[in-house]
Amino acid sequence: MGEAPAFIVDDPQSGFANGLGLKFKGCETAAIIGDRKYVIGPANDESTLATEVQIFDEISGNWVMPTVLGTKPKPGKGLSAVPLNEDRILIIKKGSTSDDCIWFLEVDTEYVRNQKKSLGTEVVAWSKGVLGNSEKPVVISGPSGVGKGTLITMLMKEFPSMFGFSVSHTTRASRNMEKDGVHYHFTDRSVMENEIKDGKFLEFANVHGNLYGTSVEAVEVVADSGKRCILDIDVQGARSVRASSLEAIFIFICPPSMMELENRLRSRGTETEEQIQKRLRNAKAEMEQGKSSGIFDYILYNDNLEQCYEGLKKLLGLDGSAAATQKTSPQGIDLPLDHLVTKIENKILINCGVAELGKAAKNLIVLDVSSLNGGAPGRTRGLNVYAVDSFSDAFAGFNQLS
Ligand SMILES: Nc1ncnc2c1ncn2[C@@H]1O[C@H](COP(=O)(O)OP(=O)(O)OP(=O)(O)O)[C@@H](O)[C@H]1O
Ligand SMILES: Nc1nc2c(ncn2[C@@H]2O[C@H](COP(=O)(O)O)[C@@H](O)[C@H]2O)c(=O)[nH]1
Questions:
Q1: In the annotation, is 279 catalytic?
Q2: Is 172 considered catalytic here?
Q3: Is the CB of 213 under 6 A from ligand 2?
Q4: Which residues fall in a coiled-coil region (predicted)?
Q5: Which of 16, 172, 199, 316 has a CA positioned 20 to 30 A from the CA of residue 214?
Q6: What is the pTM of this model?
Q7: How far is the CA of 193 from the centre of ligand 1 (A)?
């Protein structure tokens, strides 16, 4: 075994004299990475109902209040913190259920570094841990009227438990049948611009004269429901997502001809003549970029709708029967309130029975973090979890592997 077991013990020092005005409840935890101590815990202010973060810089002796991105975990009955790889902290929520027990606070990942540069402040980002390897999100792009929405609706109707739609924000007016929060989050430009400044968006773009964007939360909500996220966004948005840390599959939908595209836009009857002309002008540039920019993994022609839909399903590995392709959820865990956390290389041992090291330990849960992927913005996937009876079981085969 490579490394001596290092016990990570919660560090609940109450009453940090930080001069920032944020008081903790006294059940916070702390983790040290480099010269910085990250203090994480439920703030005393009941109205926030969220887990807060403060940083103590050992060198300057100053407290820093970072910009906190991503959905924050709701305060639980206590937290354990385990630093991982110098760039993130694993947070285990005590007494929580399997869908809410593992979180990551990213402190120096690529996403955090980029956000620090663009926001000009200290930044940390929350990312919830998802057990197992859920499928990559699917980005569907293409000119207005090509049939993206139609294909996505067909997919979600045939596989309701498998796909979830990322509900975008837009400043355009809603159409007759569109519902706020379902088709889009309809919003004002000034509100959306402020939210963009606050780092709430994974991507955004000016499309046909309006602002459209995918919030980090829109993608996270779908991941939390255990479904594969589908994004319907324009080519500029697809380029931004491609450049982000969200790993996705990128599909571009092409019309059979510009004339057919125009027919479809007109027959949909949702745009004025002026808007149709604008969308058709933009379509030309989008087609060129879609085919040649290297953003997209696949191009599909939507001539015959059924054939195009079959092609889409094939790309997504769904050409078998729906029943055969329903996914199974990985086994969950429920964490008791009292537990002891130990990190040994890429394994986090959660001892729920608090047995002595070397002796048989009941209720030992192993979190294997060796295959993590994804992360903020969005969820951290690839977390493997299993229960064992003893420390030796937890490291069976470890010598051969390490
Ligand atoms: N293969 C097809 N053949 C004929 N009509 C189609 C086909 N695919 C979609 N349509 C029709 O074309 C119109 C535009 O489709 P849809 O609204 O899905 O496009 P879209 O790409 O989502 O557009 P937007 O980007 O503006 O949201 C709709 O009326 C739809 O019924
Ligand atoms: N970059 C983004 N583009 C988006 C988003 N949501 C939708 N879209 C694209 O906008 C056009 C027009 O849509 P419409 O509903 O007004 O017809 C279309 O190409 C969509 O793909 C987004 O969040 N980001």
A1: yes
A2: no
A3: yes
A4: none
A5: 316
A6: 0.72
A7: 29
In the chain, domain spans: 7-132+331-401, 138-315
Residues whose CB is less than 8 angstroms from the CB of residue 225 and which lie 6 or more positions away in sequence, other chains included: 164
CA neighbor of 1 nearest in space, from 363, 361, 383, 357: 357
- Ligand 2 atom closest to Cα of 218? 23
Per-residue model confidence as pLDDT tens for the chain (402 residues): 333 333 333 443 444 444 444 455 556 789 999 999 999 987 655 555 667 899 999 999 999 999 999 888 887 778 889 999 899 999 998 877 767 889 999 999 999 999 999 899 999 999 988 877 668 899 999 999 999 999 999 999 999 989 999 999 999 999 989 999 999 999 999 999 999 998 899 999 999 999 999 999 999 889 878 789 999 999 999 999 999 878 899 999 999 999 999 999 999 999 999 999 999 999 999 999 998 888 999 999 999 999 999 999 999 988 764 444 444 444 556 666 677 888 888 999 888 765 444 444 457 888 999 989 888 888 888 888 888 877 666 666 544 433
Position 305, amino acid? L
CA 225 to chain centre: 12
278 lines ligand 1 (CB under 6 A): no
Q: What is the separation of C-alpha 177 from the centre of its chain, rounded to a whole number of angstroms?
A: 29
Tell me, using a 6 A CB cutoff, whether residue 28 lines ligand 2: no
Residue position matching structure tokens 């077991």: 5
Token pair recorded at residue 228: 């594969």
The answer, yes or no, to whether any atom of ligand 2 lies below 6 A from the CB of 248, is no
Structure tokens at 347: 């394994």
